[in-house]
Specification:
Shape: elongated
Oligomer: single chain
Strand content: 15-25%
Structural class: alpha+beta
Number of helices: 3
Strand order of the largest sheet: 3-4-5-6
Distance between the termini: 67 Å
């Protein structure tokens, strides 16, 4: 008598398939997480840079000069960037002076604007060294974002845009 062959998979075959799927997931998931971090950072930074840049331009129209929201590049708001969202309220006095209306009530990155004129103002080391920014012979400002999107403070991300060039530049992108 002939035996019918049974349809289906053996336990060993199922285990091999599960192992292959696990290996593929281990390879793909970190790349997906990195891309998601970059996307979240890009979205937040673009929104905050648009708001801060617009308020800088309005401040200059009203007062004839740009306005610094911090005494230096480390004077960001919020003060400590993290991978998770943190509230931005209450706003610091400098942001209120600039009439900033935050695009969201939370932020992962810390933001600061540094401003000067043809004869005053100091360009910080991050702007000058990492982004090759030099103060022009006119009123100027730049916006700097300090981000820690991967929650590893050994290497953080920085974003930069200025009154000379509104294009957002990135350093250590996604970290």
């Amino acid at each position: 008598m002939k035996r019918k062959s049974e349809a289906g998979m053996t336990l060993l075959e199922v285990m091999v398939v599960v192992g292959i799927v696990a290996i593929l997931a281990k390879l793909v998931l970190p790349a997906f997480a990195t891309q998601a971090r970059k996307s979240e950072g890009d979205t937040e930074v673009a929104q905050y840079f648009a708001e801060l840049s617009m308020k800088e331009e309005q401040y200059k129209i009203d007062h004839g000069v740009y306005f610094s929201t911090g005494a230096g590049e480390t004077a960001t708001w919020p003060t400590t960037p993290t991978a998770s969202e943190q509230t931005v309220m209450p706003l610091p006095a400098t942001w209120t002076t600039l009439r900033v209306v935050t695009p969201t009530s939370t932020a992962r990155c810390g933001y600061v604007t540094i401003a000067g004129t043809a004869t005053t103002g100091t360009v910080g080391s991050i702007a000058s060294t990492s982004f090759a920014f030099t103060a022009p012979a006119m009123s100027w400002y730049y916006v700097l974002a300090h981000c820690n999107l991967d929650n590893d403070s050994t290497k953080d991300s920085y974003y930069f845009a200025s009154s000379k060039d509104a294009k957002i530049l990135k350093l250590n992108y996604g970290n």
